[in-house]
Amino acid sequence: MSIIVRSYIEHEQLALVPTLRELEGIKIRVVAQGTTSPGTTVFPFLIEYDDRAELERILDDDPTVNEYKLVDWTNGAGIYYIEHTPETKLISTVVTNVSGLLVHTETKGNGWLIRLLLPDREALNSIWKYANENDITLDIIEIYSNDDAGTEMSYGLTEEQMIALKTAYDKGYFQEPRDISLSQVADEIGVSSTAMSGRLRRGVRNLIAATISEDDGEE
Fold it and tell me: pTM to 2 decimals?
């Protein structure tokens, strides 16, 4: 079953993040394309910033930008085709490799808000693994199923986090005083106390981000 994932990613070598950090008030989003070839490093961007000269000066120094070409500039906004350097970290590569689509991509804070259409949770796990291996912060905000019956929210939780939280809750870990220790909860699902602690911590964080936080995953 396909899923839609809304998440926030951050790393200093993600595309255009150096420019994003230099220019206050800049807004950038990827212009949607019909097709994206695997491994491509050239993307169209809509960039909103009042000073075109200053923007292009920063783009010249951005280590994630190899070359750029202006397509159009109107009223403080320009469409650029930007080729990234080999050192740039691109989430699009792994998304394409798992047969997913980047439905929407825009800057937020010092990173990117992205909305993905993925074939299944295994694809999401591959993206999560890629992010961890490349030290990319990836905060899942919302996950929806994409079936004909409607949408179902899982509040940004991975399956492992959901199992950990439900087990801890059912066994009384969140009671005051607690009915069970962390190590006993870990034993219930056959993981170490360290792994259980991490799953609970990340699960609670994602649950808060998906329900009561107004930061859209930005820390």
Answer: 0.66
